[in-house]
Automatic annotation (TrEMBL):
This is Thioesterase. One of its GO terms (molecular function) is DNA-binding transcription factor activity. InterPro entries: CBS_dom, CBS_dom_sf, Diverse_CBS-Domain, DRTGG, HotDog_dom_sf, Ser_kin/Pase_Hpr-like_N_sf, Thioestr_dom, Tscrpt_reg_HTH_GntR. The keyword Repeat does not apply. SUPFAM superfamilies: CBS-domain pair (SSF54631), HprK N-terminal domain-like (SSF75138), Thioesterase/thiol ester dehydrase-isomerase (SSF54637), Winged helix' DNA-binding domain (SSF46785). Residues 195-254, 256-312 form the CBS domain. The keyword Transport does not apply. The lineage of its organism: Bacteria, Bacillati, Bacillota, Bacilli, Bacillales. Keywords: CBS domain, DNA-binding, Transcription, Transcription regulation.
C-alpha cells in the first residue's frame, strides 16, 4: 500500500510540464495536511520534478536526463541571474541550448538566433520581437522592462521573457559559470548510475529462514542479501558470517545485522568506496528518504566505476586540477619530488600561498609517492600539519614526500616543503588505499 507521500509524488509526476503548483493546492487536491504537501513538494524538487522560481512559484518541469546535465532550463536561468519573469511563464521548463549576446546590428544578430536559444540584450524592443518570432527566449539586461506587445508575444509563443538588473557581461559570465560547474558534475559518477536496480535485486524478508538464505545462495551464487519489510524498507542485511552456526529453520530476523549502513542514490561513488573500505562491507543497499530499497551496489561495482572514471576525458577543471597541474614530478637522489612555483592564483590577500592550496599540494605529493607501492585509489584519512611558514608569491618550492609505513589498506607519508633550501612546512598524512 502506497503512503500519502508517495501518492503526492505520483500526482505531481502526472501533471503536465509547466503546471504551477502550491502547498495549499496540493493539500486540497490530495486531502492531506499542508505539512505533508510541503514535504512532498520539497522531495519532488530534489528529484528534479519541480522548480521553485522567485515571484513565479513552483512549476512542474521536465526531469533532465543525465546526458543533458550540462544544459539549463530557463527556470534555472531566472534564479542564476536573479531575474524576474515579464512573460512566457509557460515556457520556463524548456531547456536552453545556447545563448547569444545581442551586441551587433539587428540583421547580423538574427543569424545566430535559433529555436531554443536565449538572446541576451538590452532595451532593444525590435530585437526582443524578432528573437521571440525566431523561437528564442529573451533576457533583458540592465533591469529594463519590455513593451506590452513583446510581453504578449512571449505569452503567445510560451517563450520566457526575463529581466535582470545585471549588465550583459555579468549575466553571460553567470550562465557560463553554471554550465561549467555542471560539466564538472557530469564527471562525478553517482551511486544511482551504477546500482543494481530493485527489480533485479534478490531480497529476504524477516520471516524467511536460514534455509531460504542457503537456497538463494545455491541459486544465485551470492551470499549477501538485504532484508526488507512489507513496505520494502530496508531493516537488515544477511551475510555468510551471520548465518554460520544457525539451524535452517532459524528466522532471518534473529540472525540478520539490523539497521545496516545504506547509501542514497545521489551519493558519489568515491564516497561509497570510502564507506565500504572503512567499514569493511561488501554490499551496500541504496535507499530513498523513507529507507525503501532502490537497489544495491557491491564493492566490485564501485571499484569498476572508479576505474572507468579514471579513463574518461577531462571536461572541466576543478581547483585541485588547476593547482596540481602547476607542479611537475621529478627525481632527486632517486626520490619523488614535486616542484613548482607559487602563482598569483594560489595566494591569499597578503600575497602568501594559501593554506588550502599548500595542503592540496602536500596531498598530491603523498598520492604520487604511494602509487610507487600500491597501484590503486587513494582517500586521505588524516592530515596533520606540524608547522607552516609564510610562502610568498613567485616562490619556487620543492615538496619531498617520504613513505613511513604502507600496508594493504593504509599508508602513512611524511611530507616536507622547502623554499630555497629552507624548510617551510612539514606534515604527516595517513590514507586509505584500495585496488582499482
Amino acid at each position: 500500500m502506497t503512503t500519502k507521500h508517495e501518492q503526492i509524488l505520483q500526482y505531481i509526476e502526472s501533471l503536465e510540464v509547466g503546471t504551477k503548483i502550491s502547498v495549499r493546492q496540493i493539500a486540497r487536491d490530495m486531502g492531506v495536511s499542508e505539512g505533508t504537501a510541503y514535504r512532498a513538494i520539497k522531495d519532488a524538487e530534489a528529484r528534479g520534478l519541480v522548480s521553485t522560481i522567485e515571484r513565479v512559484g513552483t512549476v512542474r518541469i521536465e526531469k533532465k536526463q543525465k546526458e543533458n546535465i550540462e544544459k539549463l532550463t530557463f527556470a534555472e536561468v531566472v534564479n542564476i541571474v536573479e531575474g524576474h519573469v515579464l512573460g512566457g511563464r509557460e515556457g520556463l521548463h524548456k531547456t536552453l541550448n545556447k545563448f547569444v549576446i545581442g551586441a551587433m546590428k539587428l540583421e547580423a544578430m538574427m543569424r545566430y538566433v535559433e529555436p531554443g536559444s536565449l538572446l541576451i540584450v538590452g532595451n532593444r524592443d525590435q530585437a526582443h520581437k524578432l528573437a521571440l518570432e525566431h523561437g528564442a527566449a529573451v533576457l533583458i539586461t540592465g533591469g529594463f522592462d519590455a513593451s506590452d506587445e513583446v510581453k504578449r508575444l512571449a505569452d503567445e509563443y510560451a517563450l520566457p521573457l526575463i529581466s535582470s538588473s545585471y549588465d550583459t557581461f555579468t549575466v553571460a559570465s553567470l550562465i557560463n559559470r553554471a554550465i561549467f560547474d555542471r560539466l564538472i558534475k557530469k564527471e562525478i559518477v553517482l551511486v544511482e548510475d551504477i546500482l543494481v536496480p530493485r527489480h533485479a535485486t534478490v531480497v529476504l524478508h524477516p520471516n524467511d529462514t536460514v534455509g531460504r538464505w542457503k537456497a538463494l545462495q545455491m541459486e544465485t551464487g551470492h551470499s549477501r542479501y538485504p532484508v526488507v519489510d512489507e513496505h520494502d524498507r530496508v531493516v537488515g542485511i544477511v551475510t555468510t558470517k551471520d548465518v554460520i552456526g544457525h539451524e535452517p529453520d532459524a528466522p532471518i530476523e534473529r540472525v540478520m545485522t539490523k539497521q545496516p549502513l545504506t547509501a542514497s542514490p545521489n551519493m558519489s561513488v568515491a564516497a561509497a568506496a570510502h564507506l565500504m573500505v572503512w567499514e569493511g562491507i561488501e554490499l551496500l543497499p541504496v535507499v530513498d528518504g523513507q529507507r525503501r530499497l532502490l537497489g544495491v551496489v557491491s564493492r566490485q561495482d564501485v571499484l569498476k566505476a572508479l576505474q572507468y572514471m579514471q579513463k574518461q576525458p577531462q571536461v572541466g577543471e576543478t581547483f585541485a586540477d588547476l593547482i596540481t597541474t602547476r607542479f611537475t614530478e621529478n627525481r632527486v637522489d632517486g626520490q619523488v619530488v614535486l616542484q613548482g612555483e607559487v602563482t598569483p592564483q594560489m595566494t591569499n590577500h597578503f600575497g602568501m600561498m594559501a593554506t588550502g592550496v599548500l595542503t592540496q599540494v602536500i596531498e598530491e605529493a603523498a598520492r604520487r609517492v604511494l602509487r610507487q607501492y600500491k597501484k590503486g585509489e587513494f582517500v586521505c584519512e588524516n592530515l596533520s600539519v606540524y608547522f607552516l611558514k609564510p610562502i610568498q608569491i613567485d616562490s619556487a618550492i620543492d615538496v619531498h614526500p617520504r613513505v613511513l609505513e604502507v600496508s594493504r589498506k593504509f599508508g602513512k607519508v611524511d611530507v616536507e616543503v622547502y623554499r630555497e633550501g629552507q624548510l617551510v612546512a612539514k606534515a604527516v598524512l595517513t590514507a586509505q588505499l584500495f585496488e582499482r
